[in-house]
Amino acid sequence: MLSKKTKYGLKALTYLAKVEGREPVQIAEIAKCENISQKFLESILLTLRRNGLLGSKKGKGGGYYLIKDPKEIHMTTVMRVLEGPIAMVPCVSLNFYEKCEDCPDEEECSVHKLMLQVRDSALDVYRNNSLADLL
Amino acid sequence: MLSKKTKYGLKALTYLAKVEGREPVQIAEIAKCENISQKFLESILLTLRRNGLLGSKKGKGGGYYLIKDPKEIHMTTVMRVLEGPIAMVPCVSLNFYEKCEDCPDEEECSVHKLMLQVRDSALDVYRNNSLADLL
DNA sequence: TATTACCCTACTTAATTGGTAGGGATTTCA
DNA sequence: TGAAATCCCTACCAATTAAGTAGGGTAATA
């Protein structure tokens, strides 16, 4: 299952991409328009900022804004930041690889074989979608 | 993340497929060879049987066995039985569809658009893999 | 009829999810 | 200059799920 965190994060990014200019948009506005708990969204936007996907401005007239062109924001990045590894098992993960405890031979493992294909197909989708493609 | 339940279930199915004949194999044997907690595996095999993927025989010399040719056992079925919906959000699920609470227009939703592609690509993999393909 | 092996229910422990509460710290504008 | 707006940060919490464990019941076979 996709977490609400990822879902809301994606919606917020989309919202910001839809806004014409690069003016900061307040959390409250995004939360209201996208039906998201404001405090929860706050923490999500914070992680997006910490990971270089958003910029922020404090004080009156402040808010969050995209710091890249939506075409340059790829879903691989967004998914990894919000949802974590794209692979369903660590032993097929590119960025979070870990050997299986119980599995003596990775090459022989049926789960490994299947999940490798699933990872590749998901990566394919994420690589071919930028934020701009989702508008 | 793939649950251990699914992982172990897949390994057990693979194990049974590798066995030449159609003789019942005991839970204890599968558990030992695949490094799985026996009691946990027991409950997994039970759900596989309840869902028509395995047959069982009680008493001495009993155990579990495949009731179909591995070529006829598709990963779509296995994944749905063990892991649940293939889609990452209910609003793009074929077998477990549910409307999003917060989303006014499904067609306009960026999450929907992305997850639809992810579902299709995963389905593609699962449809193209039978148990026989994983040996 | 004793043993083997599946069948079933209930409980437990730890981690994660999806929040909520509450108060900073900083910037802007009047 | 100071008040209001707004982001920033930490801590806590309730519900759910995952991954088992425990313990016995039931059916089949030798």
How would you characterize the overall build of this protein?
The structure is a homodimer of 135-residue chains. With 135 residues, chain A is mainly alpha-helical. Chain A folds into 2 domains: 63 residues, Orthogonal Bundle (Arc Repressor Mutant, subunit A); 65 residues, no CATH class. The first copy, chain A, contains 5 helices and 2 strands; from the N terminus they run αααββαα. Chain A has a two-stranded antiparallel ribbon. In chain A, helix 1 packs across helix 3 and helix 2 packs across helix 3. The two termini of chain A are 23 Å apart. Chains A and B meet through helix 1 and helix 5 of A and helix 1 and helix 5 of B. The structure holds a DNA duplex (30 and 30 nucleotides).
